[in-house]
Amino acid sequence: MRIAMIGSGYVGLVSGACFAQFGHDVACIDKEAAKITRLRKGDIPIFEPGLDRLVADNVRAGRLSFGTDIDQAVANADAVFIAVGTPTRRGDGHADLSYVYAAAAEIAGAIRGYTVVVTKSTVPVGTGREVARIVREAQPAAEFDVCSNPEFLREGAAIEDFMKPDRVVIGVESARARDVMAAIYRPLNLIQTPMVFTNIETAEVTKYAGNAFLAMKITFINEIADLCEKVGADVHDVARGIGLDGRIGRKFLHPGPGFGGSCFPKDTLALAYTAREAQAPQTIVEQVIEVNTQRKKRMARKVIDFCGGSVAGLTVGVLGLTFKPNTDDMRDAPSLDIVPALQAAGARIVAFDPEGMAEAGRMIPGIEFAKTAYDAATGADVLVVITEWHEFRGLDPRRLKELMRLPRVVDLRNIFDPEEMRGLGFAYECVGRPRWRF
Questions:
Q1: Integer Cα distance of 179 and 177 in angstroms
Q2: What is the mean pLDDT of residues 360-373?
Q3: Residues facing residue 81 across a β-bridge
Q4: What is the 3-state secondary structure (H, E, C) of the chain?
Q5: Is the Cβ–Cβ distance between 376 and 370 less than 8 Å?
Q6: C-beta neighbour count of 78 within 10 angstroms
Q7: Residue of 53, 111, 146, 159 with fewest CB within 10 Å of its CB?
Q8: pTM for the whole thing?
Q9: For residues 98 and 86, what is the distance between their CA atoms, to the nearest angstrom?
């Protein structure tokens, strides 16, 4: 199949490279000429494990190309995927669909034969119908169908998620379009991937409902962690005890400083506002948003209280700045609330993150960066773990203690063993775990 991918950001680039790996001819299009120039040179503008190699292999094989000419790419395509950004709109919390609709208008002017126009971007219910209206209005004689094909990619594991997905959801309403989409995803038949064909609105709601449910699980276990701290229970044992119930499942039951990233904050907000407009308010989702927002703000207070009520004049070593490991994404990361609040309280921040320091430097003024995790701990009055990068789990606590001015750790991701840390003489604070065990 011949595919045009409109938008070469995270979703478009990963999806385009993976479709090329399936054997399709893919043209990734973007308005940012500088980005396209970088991609043509093999310079990947985002961090995603394995993506650089996947792109290089498929460019070399002639299946993947990059350009700015949307007309030529669409004219030659069997399917055109819209994978542009849908950020939260300033002022009201809705998803900003201006990029989606602009792409639809440009696609309409370039269609030359039957084409399936696919919304890959995360969009509120009703967007697919509006895309179809825009295309039809711009070119009444165009032969096309609109589909919804939401992405379910986890940053840091996106290639695996695309190549071996739990399911593929496709909102489609004509047999011809269904055949095209089935052909595009045919390689997944080999691993018997469930293919959920439904209507456009259902596919759009499915994406938001999935993300909202996962955000709810994270928020739920965080509130249970608060209870555990008050009553002497261990949230890890609680999570295991409930997660072994097949109706609940073990994933997304890891306590921490709150969820962030490019999806959960934006998508829960968009769902809440869309549902309000449809007069079907999602009050659970609205509460999840509020609880998560307040939790991220409270984490700085947790550090300050642990330090005796003040961090003025103290050096705070920070491990991890990105919203999760294996990405350089800082969008809505808990560190964006925690670090500025500690700075405002008078702390000097020395931080290390394996991939996120360049972006963090643009978003958090006044932060100092270390070359290694151990450098961040050197001379620190307290060490705060914000992101659970795998390499942090292998740190030697004895060496940390030798390097720190005071052996104090606030572990917001529970990567260390409380008994070991306290046994080594650390003042140690974590999330939802008791200070003693039998």
A1: 5
A2: 97
A3: 5, 118
A4: CEEEEECCCHHHHHHHHHHHHCCCEEEEECCCHHHHHHHHCCCCCCCCCCHHHHHHHHHHCCCEEEECCHHHHHHCCCEEEECCCCCECCCCCCECCHHHHHHHHHHHHHCCCCEEEEECCCCCCCHHHHHHHHHHHHCCCCCEEEEECCCCCCCCCHHHHHHCCCCEEEECCCHHHHHHHHHHCHHHHHHCCCEEEECHHHHHHHHHHHHHHHHHHHHHHHHHHHHHHHHCCCHHHHHHHHHCCCCCCCCCCCCCCCCCCCCHHHHHHHHHHHHHHCCCCCHHHHHHHHHHHHHHHHHHHHHHHHCCCCCCCCEEEEECCCCCCCCCCCCCCCHHHHHHHHHHCCCEEEEECCCCHHHHHHHCCCCEECCCHHHHHCCCCEEEECCCCHHHHCCCHHHHHHHCCCCEEEECCCCCCHHHHHHCCCEEECCCCCCCCC
A5: yes
A6: 17
A7: 53
A8: 0.92
A9: 8
Q: Which residue in 28, 228, 263, 307 is the catalytic one?
A: 263
Q: Are 28 and 13 in contact (CB under 8 A)?
A: yes
What tokens does 36 get? Answer: 């396209």
Residue whose structure tokens are 């034969």: 113
Residues 10-61: tens digit of each pLDDT: 999 999 999 999 999 999 999 999 999 999 999 999 999 999 999 999 999 9
Quote the CA–CA distance of 272 and 36 in Å, as a whole number: 35
| Six-digit token string for 198 | 């439904």
Residue where the block lists tokens 């701990």: 377
Say if CB 4 and CB 19 are below 8 A apart: no
pLDDT tens digits, one per residue of 247-283: 999 999 999 999 999 889 999 999 999 999 999 999 9
Torsion sign (Cα): 244, 248, 249, 250 = negative
Active site residue 147: no
Residue 69 corresponds to which tokens in the numbers above? 């000419």
Q: Measure the CA dihedral 68/71/75/81, to 10°.
A: 60
